[in-house]
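User: I'm curious whether this sequence folds into something compact or stays loose and floppy. Could you predict its structure so I can see for myself?
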Amino acid sequence: MISIEDIELAQAKWGENLIKIGSLKNDRNASVKATEEMLNELYAFDVGKVLFKPTKAAKIQFRLNLEAAKSYFIGGDDNYKEDTGFAFQPWVKVSFENSSVILNKGNALAMGNYFFTDPNDLKVKVEYTFSYIRNSKGSLKINLHHSSFPFNDEAYFN
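Assistant: Here's the prediction. I'll summarize afterward.
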């Protein structure tokens, strides 16, 4: 059974990894390695399909393989020209606020807001839904990552 503590630990690791990748932005080889390590540790590409819809993707919204996910975090892939590297903002803090969590025997879902803080202490709020499963070794992995900016009715109606 997946616990709330398991999810909170996975979320903390996700944030720590994102910050680490951003700190390596001036070293392409190190940032590629750190991103691949994060994706292999935290995402279920080794188990099967991963549904990944990142926040700042408009032209190719859905990233269904490791290379597409890697491009989102660090850019540099000609197949995803819109990617500038989300991790390269850089961010100095990432915090999750789970609105609700559903725990099942073989998977768990978490939904809420996460907050990204930049070096100027500017906070960006993003909405997320993550699904978690365990791989054959018992490691918790993300197999659904959907995030988006909060709805802005002024932008929508004007």
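Summary: The chain has a mean pLDDT of 95. The radius of gyration is 15 Å.
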